[in-house]
Amino acid sequence: MASPQPFLEALSERVLLGDGGMGSEIYDRGVFINRCYDELNISNGKLVREIHRDYAAAGAEVLETNTFGANRPKLAAYGFESRLSDILRAGVDIARDVAGDVAYVAGSIAPLGEAAKTAGLSQDEQRQAYHEVAAILADAGSDLIYLETFTSLNELVVALESARGACDLPIVASFSFHRGFIMGNNDFLVQPEDVAVLLTRAGADVIGANCGDGPHTTLDVVEAVRASTGKPVAAMPNVGGPALIEGRQVYLSSPEYLAEYSRRFVQKGARLIGGCCGVRPAEIREVRSFLASIQPRRARIEVGEAGESPVADGIEPRPLAERSPWGAKLGSEFMVSVELDPPHGLDPAKSIEAAKFLHDSGIDAVNIADGPRAMARMSPTSLAVLVKQHVGMQTIIHYCCRDRNVLAMQMDLIGANALGLHNLMLITGDPPKMGNFPDATSVFDVDAIGLVTFANMLNHGLDLSGKNLPAATDFVIGVGCNPGHVDIELEVERFGQKIEAGAEYAFSQPVYDARLLDRFLELTSHLPPIPFFIGILPLASLKNAEFLTREVPGMEVPLPVLQRLRDARTRDDQREIGIRVAAESLEAAIAHDRVRGTYIFPPFGKYEPILRVLRESGARS
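User: That's the sequence. What structure does it adopt?
Assistant: Structure tokens below.
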């Protein structure tokens, strides 16, 4: 049964998710390493099929055949070389049975390695061995050939040229990158740029990295390969080795860890992601969830004829000044918004008390997050109503795509407008696996751009299907952006799409390096101007700064700031430096004409230091 769309065509349209480690899964399911794992395609096809099914159920769209070592030199060690064709064809048949017409079957080919040396094969004989395997995998019904885990670039080129001569299927050529100390530096043993150039010349359709030193190294490889070739890039790391944390060897290989790195692979430009040794269906399931947060499904909503603007048939929205006091002041004066945490439980008293303190201190509005970091809290709409009732302060409710389908979005937004909650911050949202309900499912019918479009349609008196409503909503539409995004060109493109969709102001992620802000403002200077609010998050400690730099893309803390924190004698001194750095960052940001306000995250869960940051930066007296 054929797949519904050619592999390379699908890869050009979206990121595809592969599976994980077949060999490690076979071992985990009770088959000792003295067995020939490839021969299981014949003797225990049920086990192989179950593994494929588990990966497919986890969300894998590309299933690799259990043929990693299925070549004549390696099979000869077990006495199975005469059954090569049977083993290869059974491997494809089992994978195809599971893949059906919704997933792709990748014919796996690994290096001949030591087996070729033991057999004394000439290079021509090695070419013939690769040619034979590729020809059988193609004839058996594979959708693509996957050359994987090569550590010799010359051998990978030989395998690639042999496979190209054997069939016309797309070929993924994947190298296993490792670092080593070379001339005193922890550098790649084989440079990713060299691999990319040679594999491109040799005719690879996709160039990738698999296995190797784990996710952290693979991220660097993806960036280097992406910069060296126009071919799609694949990232399929193993779970990774231990990291040295305060003198301890700690394995960071949780499903969430791999999933977060997979999201970064995509942000760096990878088009095929998945895993290798030690990557189980559990990891692939997490990657699927994280991938949904940056590649939402396309909601099927009719909004008029093709090419027609979704708001073409609507009415003109009311002027900003008439929609809310926050909208009335947008762009005309420097404004301050502070994030207000919703309570974990039923009692909102602490949050309301904080809002009253901020209101009395002259803060313009509070931002109420929507399940930040996918943690379950009181809904921002409910807390906003309470703040409005008890404090009379302007609120900005965050609304994310993670938890609701488009029908629920329309109901929630119309309800918020009826409650007088007009100021919105529309975001895609974090995957639920990051939070305290890891079994919760993601929705992600649309991303933040689609959500902005929906809110803009409501402001034009149209529902999400493009039909006229009795009246229009009065939303002031805000969005987020990240000046330090790992793929700044993509971030600039999406920022422009948000403005085109109807965004009227923007809040940025926290910025510690003024150069990142300068670059982002320069790269977006051609876009229609909307009020820009710089994100400010005072650092809590040296560990906090090091974590942000190491693990949070786009939030790199400059070395001079890290040194100031290292020089501090106590934790309290580090907090004091964190406040000073925040004030300095804000002072530098407000020198830009386009920065029309700030969005401050309360440091250490305290709201009093915010006033110091504002005062010392010169933003407020």
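The chain has two domains: 7-294, 327-538+589-617.
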